[in-house]
Target: Phosphatase
Amino acid sequence: MSARPDSGRVVPLPLVSSHSARRSAVTCEYRCGNACAHEAPNTSDNAYFGDIVANVLSRRGALKGSAVLALSTAGAMAFGGTAAARPAPPHPESGGPSAPGTDFDPVPPNTEDRVVVPEGYEQRIVIRWGDPVVPGAPEFDFHHQTPEAQQRQFGYNNDFAGLIPLDGAGRRNLLVVNHEYTTETHMFPGYDAENPTEQQVRIAWAAHGQSVLLVMRDLARGGLTAEPSRYNRRITLNTEFEVRGPAAGSDHLKTSADPSGTRVLGTQNNCAGGVTPWGTMLSGEENVHQYFAHADRVTDPRTKRRLDRYGFNAGASTRKWERFDERWDLGREPNEANRFGWIVEIDPHDPDSTPVKHTALGRFKHEGATIEVAEDGRVVAYMGDDERFDYMYKFVSHGTMKPGGSAHARRHNMGLLDEGTLYVARFSGDSPAAEIDGSGALPADGEFDGSGEWLPLAGGAKSYVPGFTAEEVYVFTRLAADAVGATKMDRPEDVQPNPVNGRVYCALTNNSNRGTPGHAPVDETNPRIGNKHGHVLEMDDDATGTRFSWTLLLVCGDPEDSNTYFGGFDKNRVSPISCPDNLAFDRHGNLWISTDGNELGSHDGLFVVPVDGPQRGHVKQFLTVPNGAETCGPIVTDNLVTVCVQHPGEDAEDAQHPTSHWPDGGDSRPRPSLTAVWRDEGGRAGEIGRR
Ligand code: FEO
Ligand code: CA
Ligand code: CA
Model:
């Protein structure tokens, strides 16, 4: 079924997975090990009976407290569960004023098997899975893949991308891209999931990690081209990483292959990330649990409890890597699990540099990390733990940033993330709890808003969490955050400071279990039962301090539904948006949002929304991605936008029956790729969002 672009309405899509209404079963299996088909691993009772009921009791009395919980349960039936996809709302009016940088005709919701961009915009593929990266790498050959070729070619399932200029004009740049995960059933013809071959497993190890590439921007005519260069590099599951910071060398990180607990082979499930002000790339190791087998063979109850909190599963793993390297078998090497789930840092300027795992930033399912430089020069890293009912974190360095782009300054600045204080967020709403009824209806004061505090977990060798050593805080951060009563959030993805207005934004993708029986109820920060479309949080944070105020900028979904909110903007003029994931900012301070798992019957897309002035909340869709794909890693500059198109055609049963032919068309197989978009001004690249 396809869109009818003339009307802008789309035909509902069939549901293809019981896990997430719009993500395919294959995506769920290979990306996160069916995380949402399992019970969320946060079974702690903090901010559940502890905070919320106490709050209700103190304000409303015991009877009203019971009423709120009962209402949450009833509401769960009304709003939760897996509702069928239905037609997306009409194309918003394109008339009316637009904020600077957002003046284009929005792309209507659609289900086209291509990247759909606004009228007057051009696009070109920059690089695809299998294209050569390291000089001398062979061209991609789908039917004759080898680990040796893949470890020199562009990896699979590109997620975050960062652009690091090498000159003042921004013509020569380093492009750093995450390869989040492999989808073996689509990578290999005739793949037998029960009996993968060693060759296939080794290709998958080489298809994870990162790519570093030199890219040239055509500043006059638009576009971005990959070039062979000495910078070009692949980082894979075979690349050695140095573990640094306060948990380096900890007993929890020691294995038979690495008795020092300081050297780890590889990185995995690298989701989002951030480019640092000193020109390196940070990347989050996210759903690392799925690569490990046999958590049930761990007998020590304490170790077992720790593995459970991170979602490690019993039995064989999806990819069966444990058959080829016993480090993936928790029964044999339980500590190998603790060597993943970190923020890693890559210095793309030096292709021989050893990438780093920063233990001071804690261990969880890291979406990514983005940096703000405080007035006093200390650096703050904002981070989300992307799991239902998990937390938001920040890290404040002890040292201060050295300006300048020298290798010396870069080495110093990479060290900033080794020593500092790690915090987790606790939110409070300012409206009476009874006004947060789970429907998404705004409370009487007109906003979901309130205040919050950052609770310290550890700083250097000092733990602030009773019962936890500092090493335990860093390695088992989720459990430490449970103990201090952090606020359970609806899947915190990107958390990113806006360089123009200084406020911090967080994409909360969705949470099918919010407020449903047996789970944490709604609160003002996560106000919808069975939150299907997600929301975007805005914080006014004292970067190095411990207090903040917050408000919900967007409560996503169909603008025609009363349970959505678009910053107070006229909902007749906005694009529908669902499941916000990655964030970026343009030079005007507009927030760009890519989505993962649109629940409104359209393909995923990239959107822009002004956050200040009269157009605040005026969401406009800038592009959509092909069948089965997710929009990832947007880069937004004055005259170039790029997105990573992840898992195109992932609703296919296997490699022989592709459901997408993007990007090569015809009857080709889909390939995850990065594409560049620019405004064509009569053969010249014009400014994005300006007519
Ligand atoms: Fe890999 Fe949180 O998305
Ligand atoms: Ca309020
Ligand atoms: Ca993501």
